[in-house]
Design brief:
single chain; 192 residues; alpha+beta; three-stranded antiparallel β-sheet; 13 strands; 28% helix
């Protein structure tokens, strides 16, 4: 039976050490893997061309801004961060302040950095569950995220996440500001 519902495989009660999970990811580099704080192993489907292009454009805009300001480091969706809860998460676009990144050892930088990004973008593809992405951004907030954008082309809107604030929802097209987290960063998002 063919379904239009997003399919993300998850396996509960998978017991892997941090090193075993790291090795699993290295041995299966074509898989997009994450692990929740409860130890659930998540295998996410690849995105299609349209979502991949959109994600690349978002990353490029942030990289251009960051090269001009040199305030931090930008990471792609291939980067897995180890959150304080123990979860291993991979946002579509991530940014970390320079001082936080520089405080990590070389080994911590080379593996799955043990910190939560200061800023993330999650771009919902047609295979993503909206509720799972919302939970994921909430997990980032609980881990120290300062600003998060969940771009939802299916609903033509963006959800803006900030610590200790209600989620703000804006309709597309819109212009978003990086606020105090990314000073001077402006992102124009068209209708999708």
């Amino acid at each position: 039976m063919i379904t239009s519902e997003p399919i993300t495989l998850s396996f509960k009660n998978v017991t892997l050490s941090d090193n075993q999970f790291y090795q699993l990811c290295q041995d299966n580099e074509n898989w997009q893997l994450e692990r929740t704080a409860q130890g659930e192993l998540i295998i996410m489907p690849p995105v299609g061309g349209l979502s991949g292009k959109r994600e690349s454009d978002l990353n490029a805009d942030l990289v251009i801004w960051n090269r001009q300001t040199q305030l931090g480091q930008v990471f792609s969706s291939s980067t897995i961060f180890t959150l304080p809860s123990g979860a291993k998460r991979s946002p579509d676009v991530a940014w970390v302040k320079s001082d936080r990144w520089d405080s990590l050892t070389l080994e911590e930088q080379e593996k799955f950095p043990p910190l939560c990004p200061d800023f993330v973008i999650e771009l919902r593809s047609r295979t993503d569950s909206l509720s799972q992405l919302q939970e994921k951004i909430q997990e980032y907030l609980n881990s120290g995220l300062q600003l998060g954008w969940l771009i939802n082309p299916q609903a033509q809107q963006v959800e803006i996440y900030r610590p200790n604030q209600t989620v703000e929802i804006v309709q597309l097209p819109t212009t978003l500001s990086g606020e105090k987290v990314l000073p001077g960063f402006i992102l124009d998002i068209p209708l999708f």
